[in-house]
Amino acid sequence: MKAWLYGFFMAWGMFLSIPCPAKLWDESARRHMLACLPLVGAVAGGLWALEAWLLALTGCPMPIRAVLIAFFPWLLTGAIHVDGFMDVSDAILSRRDLETRRRILKDPHCGSFAVISIVLLSAAVFALCMTKEISGLALVSLGLIPVSTRACAAIAVSVMRPMSTSQYSSMGEGKRFGMLILPILLLAAACAVPAALCGCRGLAPLASAAVYWLAALYGFKQLDGMNGDISGYALTLGEAAGLAVLVLI
Fold it and tell me: With contact defined as beta carbons under 8 Å apart, do 202 and 190 qualify?
């Protein structure tokens, strides 16, 4: 139990920008940190749904509401996943050889492809949030999108071959696979519960999961390995896809 407690607060401190209630760290709990990613997603998703509910309750003008809802998840995570999205976009869209793509991935400078990609994604997410108000039971679906994507992230990082430079490469195969039960159960719940409650709009977390895996597999193929940047790339696209299903259906 201690390892799970450490893992949860380690995941909170690493993947959320909001103050962590307990600043704990233990290298031996790193596997548990990965497995606790969906729980961190539950914190982020709960705050996202709460924000959307409060904005609707106060009658905030739609353009302002759209901006706040669209980019709130990015603020909650300190844009750590968006950073991965930009790095991977820069590398893949360069259309260079594998060695060069990997070098671009690790380059701390922001390239033109990264800028173009984030501008287009930002415009798309804002436009989606301007399309329809998210209220009622749809808030359940909204709140579970981050749970779905982070459960997928925990599973993907565990089952996909890591790059040699990835922080996850030092984790043993058997040890990583042993931590999959919680993410799998939470992924199933995040996809099934809103679908039962909200009908078609409840498919948003499922759409997020599907797009996450498509993007993760594409990034894996293009860069010949899995790492945190590719996971952030897939997570960012997955959340955008979930939002699209939520407001367009």
Answer: no
Q: Which residue has the tokens 């820069």?
A: 90
CB neighbour list of residue 53: distance below 8 Å, 6 or more residues apart: 135, 139
Helix (H, G, I), strand (E, B) or coil at 226: strand
Domain annotation covers residue 10: no
- Please give the structure tokens belonging to residue 137: 């039971």
Confirm whether 119 is domain-assigned: yes
- Total domain count, the chain: 1
* CA gap 23, 213 in Å, rounded: 32
Q: Which residues contact 57 (CB under 8 A, 6 or more apart)?
A: none
Residue 144 domain-assigned?
A: yes
The answer to whether the predicted template modeling score (pTM) of the entire model surpasses 0.90 is yes
Q: 143-179: per-residue pLDDT in tens?
A: 999 999 999 999 999 999 998 776 665 555 545 566 7
